[in-house]
């Protein structure tokens, strides 16, 4: 797709006319459309339905609303078509966040969430396009583990990630833009009552899935959550969930979804100021979508098919695409919360250093390519900095590392980070499936690699 690759440049990413041409049916920074959305005064969902969502989340860790219970301002079918258009141009589904309609939906989702949970949009927006013959939804995971929240200064105890009234401090609204069925990878949930790690936390050793599925009766507790286009599901940061492996043969319609994360500020601060809502300006949207793809890119190792559902054609991308996404984010980085910047820097460094052999030639040299000392020790750090300075080398991974360390005043990349390169520590080096998916595998020690593994 040479044309698509050609268009994937910073100039296009920041151009309203480019995005309008990709999806002519949708709006980009269209003031008249935005005014129409803001003028709307219908409620999105009945208060009684939101109450039911609340009690289901408290009881089971998940809930659902049917299309008949929801009245979205944005046309759901047009958003789905938009995702397919983006695919044609080589863009991941998350880039639907470039369009006003996605933010209209975020606003509606916010109204439902406020009523059901009291949580606010934290800008964790992700799009998915599952083609069951080639890809599937994310493999089983919890959206957050202690290694996601402790870098944000939140105490490690899982029990403290719930409010005094029991509501989770992080809840996702997952909107189906096409019908989501078991055949095309609808979501599946494990009810909290059968999941001992839900509120107590997972042991450092041992697989939470194996803890739960010890006998036949446990398998019967798995709940499939099909929803027709325009319906949505809800789950907390601790609910184990996944998209099923759909039917591989035959013509199964793609499953397209758009998810929004809602949190309390003390648990996960909004990635950029809510003052930019309801319609953030294009540069902010572009930076967010780019960063979100990087944020999940570590999935390429632990959940390749899930990563494909998220990244589309970018799933096999090399260094130059990663660098492009990172540059777009960096250009707006100051507008993002320091904890998010830190997370994206960590992910960017991690995925850059983990590119398979040959992928780096797509663009920049990586730190692996014989630069001498790798990141980690002070000596290496200084050597890296000096190399960057001396050779005017544009090694974005190293720069990101240094920039992130300088801006946070923390040493983010320790010597064990070298394991990412050495191949000596596969347990640590392989990001496990994690929203951001937090792995449900054997965990030898907490990993600091963020939401996706
Ligand atoms: O759509 C999927 O397959 C995964 C969705 C998910 O894990 C989430 O929204 O938290
Ligand atoms: Fe998830």
UniProtKB/TrEMBL annotation:
Q: Return the annotated region ranges for Disordered.
A: 136-158, 359-403, 417-453
Compositional bias (Basic and acidic residues): 140-150, 362-371
Q: Where is the signal peptide?
A: none
Task: Spell out the Gene3D superfamilies in the cross-references.
Answer: q2cbj1_9rhob like domain
Q: Which Pfam families match?
A: PhyH (PF05721)
UniProt-listed SUPFAM superfamilies: Clavaminate synthase-like (SSF51197)
Superkingdom in the source lineage: Eukaryota
Quote the biased-composition stretches of kind Basic residues, using this chain's numbering: 433-453
What InterPro entries does its record include? Phytyl_CoA_dOase-like
This protein is called Uncharacterized protein
Q: Which organism is it from?
A: Symbiodinium natans
